[in-house]
Write a structure and sequence with these properties.
About 60% of the residues lie in helices and about 0% in strands. The chain has a domain of about 325 residues: Hydantoin permease. It is mainly α and about 500 residues long. The chain is built from 18 helices and two strands. The protein is globular. Strands 1-2 form a two-stranded antiparallel sheet.
């Protein structure tokens, strides 16, 4: 096992050995964590019983999967991650929007995963060995989780794939055992005294569809390309990659979330999940629960940390993926400690993630529109201009920015922020929308409409990248900058000298 040598450069064809079934392993293995399980508790906390909660998760997850899964096809064609690929739509500098969104989204979800997993670990250790529920206990648990996730993320794709394969089997087994552990107390009714969060059944059910179901696939808008860039379109069809991505998203999200719903009604978890889950677990299930909390958190946070390293690598071309990953590992660990011991910031982080998702959905819509318009044909070398500290090329547009796409994204994002509902902030459009958080759907629709309007007069089959081709090949902006690598080379150097 070696540390992965590639960052956001073009993956050489000879190394694109990934298979469609690998993405199923990634999406199932990395999601069987309590940080994902807790989304199954959300509908119950809204006042829904078991079957209404299950139906809301099913509808939201299926709709979200159909909308998000096509993003996996972009990196299948570009052989780099999605934020770098978005340079075809936003420009080689404008794609930094995607890198920033992906970096911050992954940072938020990493913190939430480690918080939830750490809480369950401390509770399990307290019941098993009498470890006090103290600051020192949390500090030790967070440190262990942080070190393990950092090691997995730094080693990269191959280690994470092996880990995901093992977790897909092992964690599914643990969750099935958990069903038997909590089955004696299972009921289909909502927790005692629970009331519908929005006052009536249907509005609360629709809130659950969006907040618990649809938000799951939306969280992967910048992540799917991290896996499919290692797959070759010469060996695997777009149809097969799309279908396996759909399977991975649906299974990877519904398995842990439905377990969360089942256990939430079993332990009568109305306002808190991790505490009652541990407190009411049979003693014999505490060890499996401890394994699920620790290994699941490492798998989920490891994938997020890996994605963060790639995004920081794309933002700072002079660094390497390994250095970028160590940097974001330190930042995320510090955030976890500060959030738990100083700020009590879990609600703030949840709000932060929801706000980022509201601005991330418009970005994903524009990437998909561009992919359809260019029919999956990309100039992979032109996408690497910024990584090589050069200028020019097919996707240079105006000083590296596609102003039309950026304007459409800004309009859609503004609408999304006005329509989002978080624990700390409610947009002014939410009351006018019946109390629903429709930020994902509304911002996406507005972005698509705005982009069609601002590009309506173009003579390039509504795909503005073609107009930028006249700018010619990329020219170095820095005489000391490395020469552009051949296809398959490293974005920071020649093809024969990959970096770690």
């Amino acid at each position: 096992m070696q540390i992965e040598q590639h960052g956001v450069d073009v993956i050489p064809e000879a190394e694109r050995t990934g298979r469609p079934r690998d993405i199923v392993s990634f999406l199932i293995g990395s999601n069987l964590a309590l940080g994902v399980v807790i989304f199954g508790w959300l509908p119950v906390s809204f006042g829904l019983g078991f079957w209404p909660a299950v139906s809301s998760l099913l509808v939201g997850t299926l709709v979200g999967t159909v909308l998000v899964a096509p993003l996996a096809l972009v990196s299948l064609r570009t052989a780099t991650n999605l934020s770098t690929s978005s340079g075809a739509q936003f420009g080689v500098r404008g794609r930094l929007l995607g890198s920033a969104i992906g970096l911050l989204l992954s940072l938020g979800y990493t913190a939430l995963t480690l918080w939830v997993g750490g809480d369950a670990m401390v509770g399990s250790l307290a019941r098993l060995f009498g470890m006090p529920d103290s600051a020192a206990g949390y500090a030790i648990v967070y440190a262990v989780l942080a070190v393990c996730t950092a090691v997995c993320a730094v080693y990269g794709y191959k280690l994470l794939l092996r880990l995901s394969r093992a977790l897909a089997i092992g964690m599914t087994t643990l969750l099935v055992v958990g069903l038997f552990a909590y089955a004696p107390h299972f009921t289909t009714q909502a927790p005692a005294g629970a009331e519908y969060l929005l006052g009536d059944f249907w509005t609360t059910w629709l809130l659950s569809v969006v907040a618990a179901g649809l938000s799951g696939p939306i969280a992967f808008i910048t992540l799917l390309g991290d896996y499919t860039r290692y797959m070759s379109p010469a060996r695997h069809s777009s149809r097969r990659v799309y279908l396996t991505t759909c399977l991975g998203l649906v299974a990877g999200l519904l398995i842990p979330q439905l377990f969360g719903t089942f256990t939430a009604v079993a332990v009568d978890a109305a306002t808190d999940y991790a505490g009652p889950l541990v407190a009411q677990a049979p003693f014999w299930f505490l060890v499996p629960l401890l394994l699920a909390a620790s290994l699941g958190s490492i798998g989920n946070a490891g994938l997020m940390l890996y994605s963060m390293g790639l995004d920081l690598d794309a933002i700072v071309p002079r660094t390497t993926r390994s250095k970028a990953t160590f940097t974001v590992a330190a930042v995320s660990t510090a955030l976890v400690y500060l959030g738990h011991f100083v700020w009590d910031a879990q609600d703030a982080m949840t709000a932060f993630v929801l706000l980022l998702t509201a601005v991330g959905a418009p970005w994903a819509v524009l990437v998909l529109i561009g992919h359809v318009r260019c029919r999956g044909a990309y100039d992979t070398e032109a996408l690497q201009v910024l990584n090589r500290r050069s200028v020019g090329g097919r996707y240079w547009y105006t000083a590296g920015w596609n102003l039309r796409a950026t304007l459409a994204w800004a309009i859609g994002s503004a609408v999304g922020l006005l329509a989002v509902d978080t624990p700390l902030y409610t947009g002014p459009l939410v009351p006018r929308l019946g109390g629903f958080d429709l930020s994902f759907l509304l911002s996406s629709a507005v972005t698509a409409a705005a982009f069609l309007v601002v590009t309506a007069g173009e003579k390039t089959a509504l795909f503005p990248a073609a107009a930028a081709a006249s700018n010619g090949p990329a020219e170095s902006a820095d005489p000391a900058a490395p020469a552009p690598a051949a296809a398959g080379g490293d974005a920071h150097g020649p093809a024969v000298a990959p970096r770690s």
